[in-house]
Write a structure and sequence with these properties.
This protein is an alpha+beta fold. It has two domains: 2-117 and 242-266, no CATH class; 127-231, Sandwich (Immunoglobulin-like), CATH 2.60.40. The chain is built from six helices and eleven strands.
Length: 270
């Protein structure tokens, strides 16, 4: 798991690095365009396009029959059954490209979350650093580099299994915090900038799912005494029509728009 996360993180660092120099929306638009073209090519190469087209047209014809014969229950129920049957056929013919796209898309979305999902910390604004510990009586200390001020001593929360500090960044940049516990030293990155960059809200400890869903930093060692180290990065807002739809909403809407706009040029049925 650790090796896979490191390999994927390294790959996406290289692949997504050009977008670190663009506004977040521009980067999402370019990635959505690339994704849409990839989806179209995968559908073109891996699906049975003639049968997919026929199933889609039959499904649309059955929907039209439902509207045309909505006053005849027998014909209406037959049309509904046809819609269900042709929909299942459409899904069956779409299965192969969907399976080809599933894992790469999930990996891409996960790594995009840590680049586009969070805003950077702001110089002068305090934030909480949390260390999950199994034993809150064990001494845990924090060392911060120049540019980061530790505002409070460690606050132990036995009911939460955490040690908490309030820290304040004083200048933009990327920093490395050092948490000392039982003679061991654990590091945690801290990004103070609003630019698009890979951020790590949580450095996870043990647990397959936690490590899978938090790939931005190597996990803590199993016998290290810390369960996690967490920094509360603010969410990066993306507002549309007064609603915050998040980066994923923007990305998915743009991907769908590009895919449907370009499907004719690629000769693909979706």
């Amino acid at each position: 798991m650790i090796a896979m996360n490191r390999a994927l993180t390294g790959f996406f660092d290289v692949a997504l690095a050009p977008f670190d120099y663009l506004p977040a929306f521009v980067g999402l638009a370019v990635l959505a365009l690339v994704t849409a073209i990839t989806v179209l090519l995968v559908f073109k190469w891996t699906s049975d396009q003639p049968r997919l087209t026929a199933a889609k047209r039959a499904m649309q014809a059955a929907i039209f029959e439902m509207r045309l014969f909505n006053d005849d229950l027998v014909l209406l129920f037959r049309a509904q059954a046809d819609v269900l049957r042709h929909t299942l056929s459409y899904l069956r013919f779409s299965l192969a490209p969907t399976l080809w796209l599933l894992l790469p898309m999930l990996a891409l979305l996960l790594h995009m979350e840590f680049r586009f999902g969070y805003s950077g910390l702001t110089a002068g604004d305090a934030v909480l650093l949390r260390a999950g510990v199994a034993d809150t009586t064990r001494p845990v200390t924090l060392d911060a580099p120049a540019g980061i001020t530790v505002e409070t001593a460690a606050v132990y929360l036995p009911s939460e299994g955490e040690v908490v500090w309030r820290i304040t960044p004083r200048a933009t940049g990327t920093y490395e915090l050092r948490v000392h516990a039982g003679g061991d030293v654990f590091t945690k990155t801290l990004v103070v900038s609003d630019a698009v960059a890979r951020r790590s809200p949580v450095r996870p400890g043990t647990g397959f799912i936690k490590r899978l869903l938090n790939p931005s930093e190597p996990p803590l060692p199993d016998a290290g005494g810390l369960a996690s180290i967490t920094v509360a990065y603010p969410e990066r807002p993306f507002t549309f029509a007064g609603w915050n739809i998040g980066w994923s909403g923007v990305y998915l809407l743009l991907t769908l728009a590009f895919a449907f706009a370009l499907k004719g040029a690629f000769g693909v049925t979706l």
